[in-house]
Design goal:
Helix content: 55-70%
Organism: Faecalibacterium tardum
Structural class: mainly alpha
Strand order of the largest sheet: 1-2
Shape: globular
Order of helices and strands: HHEHHHHEHHHHH
Protein name: Phosphatase PAP2 family protein
Keywords: Membrane, Transmembrane, Transmembrane helix
Number of strands: 2
Number of helices: 11
Strand content: under 5%
Length: about 210
Amino acid sequence: MKLDQLRSWCRPHLWYQLYWVVYLIWFFWLDLTVTAPKYILHSPLDDLIPFNEWFVIPYCSWFLLLAGVTAALWWCDTASYDKLCLTMFSGMTFCLIVYMILPNGLELRPAVETLGRDNPALRIMQLLWKADAAVNVCPSIHCQSSACMAMAFSHSKLAEGKPLRKVLAWAWAALICLSTVFTKQHSVIDVACGLAVAFVWLPVVYRPARALH
């Protein structure tokens, strides 16, 4: 491949990933400045969901899903990659704006000493809680982005005629969403709002093309 062809192929598609610089600065700035959220979210359903530290494994698998789907679509299906960037990054931006206007948080995390157990998953959870304060939670970016990745992949060339791949993509995204409530990282309210932010794009970006007569 000639250098000019490579430049043409990478621009602007690969440059979309520069959004992560903006996102990370914005997110961590909010994480440091919103120390006393105005709105504490809670649903009666949250009380029915037990804390299970082993869900930290699918929770952290979000990073693998993000890297894998983004790289695969960028390499194999540029059109689907562009749709992923549009839906996921716009949704993330919307969530960050909500965090600024309606600073929210949770009081769901259990005290470790009351659990009466110690294992590798629980130690990972403790590290996660130290790094990620229980603020800026609704809508859940974890759930919003997972749904966007599942939508983009299942509508891409990589899943065309391969229903098992679609099922696996959605199952992985669903497991990540479940993990957010079992690890008490999010309330079911956050999950519902995060999915709503993602699925609002479904009839717009992924609507079936009308047949021409």
